[in-house]
Design goal:
With 250 residues, the protein is of the alpha/beta class. Helix content is 41%, strand content 14%. It has one domain (2-243): Rossmann fold, CATH 3.40.50.720. GO terms for molecular function: oxidoreductase activity, acting on the CH-OH group of donors, NAD or NADP as acceptor.
């Protein structure tokens, strides 16, 4: 991670779970980190969990990744105050429990706007900063195993993850799309999709938690995977990283 010391990383959805763990680990690895979230106070609370000498390296900034104006306002601040974006971790995502056949369409649209367009909007701004400086940055997409398959049918259980798997399948396609674009544009910007199995976070529906029980990953497990991908030599790209807990059957 030495080459990333004092570089700027932006982590979306940094107020809890995987995003919080990644933000803390990147600061502890020597980076300046901007944690984007709607719940800014929770990102500020993270500073108290850092060593005193590193707390000033974590910035908490409001951003609704599904809103183009909010994304532009946040990235304008980052460029003005910190000068650049060197790493972007697209972690923000949402899952709204409900059934495809009768769920409020507005809730499903929120999932798609956050999980797909949130990545597109943030990545446009980050990559613009990288290309303007001809900097070989890194874009990380926090995906899911549900971006590669659908829920396994279980007798007596009605799936309630609706458009979440389709939104994550889109993330898988985005990762390959970015890889091809980065090459075609003559850059050496890296793209990594990280696909966790079940992680013990706030987003996990009770229906899945009850079935999985103790066969879950922790947010810190995913963060360590992200740091591994970021720390690879310049000629190495971890395009897809799947992380599952032992015993997971999904």
């Amino acid at each position: 991670m030495e080459r990333w010391h004092n570089r700027v990383a932006v982590v979306t959805g940094a107020s809890s779970g995987i995003g919080s763990a990644i933000a803390k680990d990147l600061v502890n690895a020597g980076m300046t980190v901007v944690g984007l979230a709607r719940r800014v106070d929770r990102v500020k609370e993270l500073q108290k969990e850092l060593p005193m000498e590193k707390r000033s390296k974590l910035f908490a900034l409001y951003c609704d990744v599904g809103s183009e104006s909010s994304v532009n306002e946040a990235f304008d601040w980052i460029i003005q105050k910190l000068g650049a974006v060197d790493i972007l971790v697209n972690n923000a995502g949402t899952l709204q429990s409900g059934h495809l056949v009768d769920m409020n369409p507005a809730q499903m649209q929120l999932v798609l706007q956050t999980n797909i367009m949130g990545i597109v909007l943030c990545t446009q701004r980050a990559v613009r900063s990288m290309r303007e400086r001809k900097f070989d940055g890194h874009v990380v997409l926090i995906n899911s195993i549900l971006g590669h398959k659908t829920m396994t049918a279980m007798e007596g259980v009605v799936p309630d993850v609706n458009v979440y798997p389709p939104s994550k399948h889109a993330v898988t396609a985005l990762a390959e799309g970015y890889r091809q674009e980065f090459i075609g544009l003559g850059t050496r910007i890296k793209i990594t999709s990280v696909s966790p199995g079940v992680v013990d976070t706030e987003i996990l529906p009770d229906s899945i938690r009850e079935v999985i029980k103790d066969r879950m990953l922790h947010s810190e497990d995913i963060s360590q995977g992200v740091l591994y991908a970021i720390a690879t030599p310049p000629h190495v790209q971890v395009h897809e990283l799947t992380i599952k807990p032992i015993g997971e059957t999904m």
